[in-house]
Amino acid sequence: MGLTHESSGLALVKDEYILEKEMDNTVIALAGNPNTGKSTLFNYLTGLKQHTGNWPGKTVANAKGTFNYEDESFLLVDLPGTYSIFANSQEEEIARNFICFGEPEITVVVVDSTSLERNLNLVLQIMEITDNVVVSLNLIDEAKRKGIKIDVKKLENELGIPIVPTIARDGIGVEKILNTIYNISNSNYKINPNKVKYSPEIENTITKIENILSIYLDRSHNLRWIALRLIDSDKSIKNELENFLIENRFTSEPLEEIENIIKENENIGDEIVTTIYETAEQIADEVVSIEDNRKIDWDKKLDDILTNKITGYPIMLMLLGVIFWITIVGSNYPSNLLAKVLFSFESKLSYLFLKLNPPDWLYGILILGVYRTLAWVISVMLPPMAIFFPLFTLLEDLGYLPRVAFNLDNSFRKAGTHGKQALTMSMGFGCNAAGIMACRIIDSPRERLIAIITNNFVPCNGRFPIIIAMSTIFIGGLVNEKHSSIIAAISVVFVVLIGIFVTLIVSRFLSKTFLKGVPSSFTLELPPYRKPQIGKILIRSLIDRTLFVLSRAIMVAIPAGAITWIFANITINGASILNISANFLDPFAKLLGLDGYILMAFILGLPANEIVLPILTMSYMSKGAMLEFESIETLKNLLLNNGWTFITGLNFMLFSLLHFPCGTTLLTIKKETGGRKWPIFTFFLTTIVAILVTLVVNIIGKLIYNLI
Amino acid sequence: MENLNNIISLAELPVQKSGKVINILCGGNKRRRFLDLGITQNTIIKNERVSPSGNPIAYNIRGTIIALRTSEAEKILINIL
């Protein structure tokens, strides 16, 4: 038995890469720096809707997909975007291990033509591991716009590997990539890569180690690569080697020998990295010519405004405000229309259903419970989501999110957390579970935990409808109709700001108590702005996000609607279970400026925040106040009839913003932290925060009210 | 010969000025991270822009704009050009 790829790799990568490798599938790895259009190429090839966005570190786990070309079927694995595969971050380890041990037949490296030097560094590193490397020289249109010319033939000669210019976004050059892959896979194309030449001292050290290794390992292994990894003190490789030596009854003498060789030359690790970068620099210098004749550098101009001392923050708030305003105004009409259609359909459905002479309880559960809740969820949630998501994705695609992180980082630093937390928070706007998964881009376990625990303070789309509805009714309603939508939008921005503020305070609190520590090092790339692909954004945000979230809400709404109806209609001593529970909760809820029904709705809404509002209205309706939802006005009347005041509306929003995460989010926290401890911790922490804040607001509100 | 008067930390580099990397004053993972970003000896780095609050600062490192917190940038010695 030799140090096979299996024995040296599987232990490390067991969970990550159990590929459903069919016999005739050729495995292709897709590597590249962040923001090079890797995911775009992946989607183009596989037809999968992998979420792309213009910010680094989005692909945290591997996406896989298959495609066919000619008579061959391929399995494509999208690796996380990294600058290097030598360092120790989680992303880099995943990428390195896969190329090393996942045994891809060919590795396609997607390269950003506008910064060839940096990207070549990764290409050269990958060429150390494997010979079969194909470069997709992507974004050549952008390079052209910036006056950057690349001599492709020369580059091909320098590297000794095939280079294919591409514009992945438009599918240009993809056919040639496929053709090249196919030819390599069928041995019609032999690659002779020109690997990096190190200084004589380093080469000497490498050879010495290789010679020692060759006594124990046969030449089919990439001894040079193993030697380089050992020089770089890669612990996993060292352990594998140690185990192998023990298993085969060798002494650990060779390891000591190797270590002594490495010790002789302390800086050798640094020198290797430097040599690779210098080689990249040299090659780039030779093949790139720049003739920048643009009059205005738009990237710079945009950044000057968006990260400006004076205009940076106001623009950030304005953009958010405008998005909310468009969402509020734009969803008003379709929401009413949907409600009208769905509720008029209810009477038809009732008529047909009653013809079958069903028992009363069945009619109640199915029509008054399930159907009505569904109609609610759809008419209240769908329009705002269908507007909000594409708008937000637009900002993401443009590359604005890293600028937000750049602007806000100082606050996060002061809170003792990671600068990328601003990015994971932004993902939370869509769905907190997604935001928590995105926390994998944060390396330091302590800061990652803080980001995970506090992600819930960003309102997800399940809670936006509540915040939007309450803002429209109780805050927009304070002014005349003409300005109400603007005031409502400002109020939503304000609620988001409260969420960010609470995130910072709680993060700081955690940094000082449960998760003590200092902020770890972090680097944030500000990628060039990219023209958003409007059509793709629409499709992607509608299918990926809107329909996904809506279908989840519907799945939860069906049982929740039935259960709520049952609770509202099974009576004990003349009072329904719902009433009894609500009355039980009422004294406590009143302290928070809420009522028992509201708290019940939050508790029943644990599976998904989307159904809190529908459950609440149904509870109120079961008391016989309202039958149909026609417009936001009906909702307003229903709430007012049930004793709501401005403070109830405000605290309902705040409680919704701050309270315990939904079931899916809790499960995601459990999965991401590997235990029950942190989801339980998060549950209690957020609930305590929500109770404290609403309690204080209620007390202050009552005081002010009494003064007036 | 390097002019010793021109040696400052990257954090002190004024906006829109460039410097040449002389040394990285830390070891281990942190050093590794800098090297992997392309901050190697003799690399030319430009202070591209400062965030609204003055920290972090965005640098142009080998054609990519990368933001570093001041506490990080302090670890990098440069020769101002």
Automatic annotation (TrEMBL), chain B:
InterPro entries linked: Fe-transptr_FeoA-like, FeoA, FeoA_core_dom, Transcriptional_repressor_C
The Ferrous iron transporter FeoA-like domain, residue ranges: 8-80
Keywords assigned: Iron
One MF term in the entry's GO annotations: transition metal ion binding
SUPFAM superfamilies to which the protein is assigned, alphabetical: C-terminal domain of transcriptional repressors
Domain of life: Bacteria
PANTHER family: FE(2+) TRANSPORT PROTEIN A (PTHR42954:SF2)
Identification of the protein by name: Ferrous iron transport protein A
Species the sequence originates in: Anaerosalibacter bizertensis
